[in-house]
Amino acid sequence: MHVFFEQENLDAYLSGFFWILKLTGASAVLALGFGVLLAAMRVSPIPVLRGVGTAWVNIFRNTPLTLVIFFSFFGLFSTLGLEFSDELDTNQFWLGVVGLSAYTAAFVCEAFRSGINTVPPGQAEAARAVGLTFAQTLRIVVLPQAGRAVIAPLGSVLIALCKNSTIVGTIGLLESSNIMKQLINDNGDAVIEIFLVFAGTFAVVLIPTGYVFGWLANKLAVRR
Amino acid sequence: MSTVLYDYPGPRAKRRNVVLTVLFGIAIAALLWWVYQKFADAGQLEGRLWKPFTEAATWRNFILPGLRATLLAAFTGMILSLAFGIFFAVGRLSEHWWIRLPVGAIVEFFRAVPLLIMIFFIFYGVPFLIQGPVPIFWALVIGLTLYNGSVLAEAFRAGIRAVPRGQSEAAYAVGMRKSQLMRYILVPQAARAMLPVIVSQLVVLLKDTALGYIIAYPELLQRGVNDLAANFGNVIQAAIVVAVIYIIINSLLTLFANWLDRRTRRLGIRVPGGTGALRTTGAVDGA
Description:
The complex is a heterodimer. Chain A has helices spanning 2-5, 7-43, 47-61, 65-79, 88-117, 121-129, 134-164, 176-186, 191-220. Chain A has a single domain (2-220), classed as MetI-like fold. Chain A is 81% helix and 0% strand. By secondary structure, chain A is mainly α. Chain B has one domain: MetI-like (MetI-like fold, Orthogonal Bundle). In chain B, 78% of the residues lie in helices and 0% in strands. Chain B is built from twelve helices and no strands. In chain B, helix 4 (97-112) packs across helix 6 and helix 9 (195-208) packs antiparallel against helix 11. Chain B starts with 10 loop residues before the first helix and ends with a helix. Chains A and B meet through helix 3, helix 4, helix 5, helix 6 and helix 7 of A and helix 1, helix 4, helix 5, helix 9 and helix 10 of B.
């Protein structure tokens, strides 16, 4: 373990994962908000909104994230001049967040839409039959059931987002994968150790997260 | 159009919908106009930036070779991950704990590690171990295989477990061995039941080949956007053209998956939780 006993390397390791944490956190919040909005558009009775929602989902779900992040740096920033900060890494960070959120929102939208679709139409029909208004139907009958069905897919989306945030390294942010590459190049005698520490950090955090979401989804599942 | 959320619209709801359609239509048109203006202000709508795409040489020298490399990596990765997936799914269902546990640990590990970390290790780390270079193509393909193969292993496992017990009992009753049971009875039925999930994961794999750009494998993003834009100074236009190519290929694969889904639904093997739920998790389980 000699590589990580050196303060300099340990700091690099920590800062790499701190970026991952920040990327995941910021993108999760934005993608959740935007994804819910897209889902609302896709189930709305207004064709224009449905069209926009569908287009967004189809475009971003079928484009590689690497291309999206590449575009947000070389397209939005370098060519169109969208700049978040004078500081290089802060700017890279926010451009990465823009790309990650735009991409992840498409998957969040699909998770919510499939959640709403798991509620049998009879439930809403019954709600209307007993005289509930649209808002009441949504609040009391549909969303509580849809919310439970959404837990498992949302968990997968969050885990994928955390792993995907390493791709922001493409535009030069010194997140965990770039730090690992540097450490490997500087310490050719300890590559297995370095890999196991970096990969292990992800595994130790993400495998239990997956089980917790699975357990929660199972516990809260609507028995039909 | 009626979903779970609202009824068939009556006259009042119809009128309201028309008003809202017009309002939102104007808002979205305004938004698109704003984007158009931004592009125009930055001089991004000039014909000369799009002109390279009307010339055969651009396609011959940049886009098509990139597409070929992308498809080659994707195709090799697909074959290898399917093999890996079946092998590890069967291993994880083994009756021997000394096979089941390590195989389970390997599958869980590769599913949790970001593909980029995997690829960097293979491309930059392994050469130190074997004292020689790792070909860029194989660094990408092996990374893709380990990750997507592990996800597919879980899909196969769910599929195998969804085959009714009577099938295995009948196979044992007619004197089949465990290996024959897997090969002739369980895996074919599981593969058919899980086809939609499998194809969705293959779409993920195809998209993930774009990670090859980061280690300079000459695939579609590298050749069609990076190198092409370096020559013509049209990074936005190149990115849009390449994105459209990716979207077309993936949409075709998805249409194929949906067609298979409709076809296989008739076969009557139900995966617990429904193929739909599994497909959603499968499809989002990638970069």
